[in-house]
What does this fold into?
Amino acid sequence: MALAGHADGAGRRSRLRQYQAELLERMQAARSSAGARVAQLGVQCGGQRLLLDLTQTGEVLPLGALCPVPWTQPWYLGLANVRGSLTGVIDLGLYLGQGPTTRAAQARLVSFAARLGLPCALLAERVYGLRHAADMDNLGEQLRDAEGALWTALDLATVAQDARFYQVGL
It folds into this structure.
């Protein structure tokens, strides 16, 4: 009985690794496609669907254990070990005033690109994969996809330059 559960868990991990590898390949192809349509990474944080520029995102990682840091803002969730480096994790939903990001089975960490100079990741309730803003209706501050879902483009570089972002202490 325990072996069957172990095999099922191993199969899930294998499928997750395969999905992550395929997503990484598509993200890298989208980054390097000169003249191609610009793609963004679609994520959900705090109940809001966001489009992140691929040049500003790093890896999409499973949500592992977080080490809380006392006396920090509610949106600063703590530290995660990402490939041997300490990475600060933020709840972007709380930071943006949208409400907390749910930590469910689909939750992932999306790291900031190294070029932004911050060892940081955001908690995403869900990662939708690549999206093309050019395929959506522009409603001013938001975009509407073919299914009617509303999306907001978010510039992580702007977030990373916000003075409030550096004030994690209470």
User: Anything to note?
Assistant: The helical segments are 2-32, 92-95, 156-161. DSSP finds three helices and eleven strands in the chain.
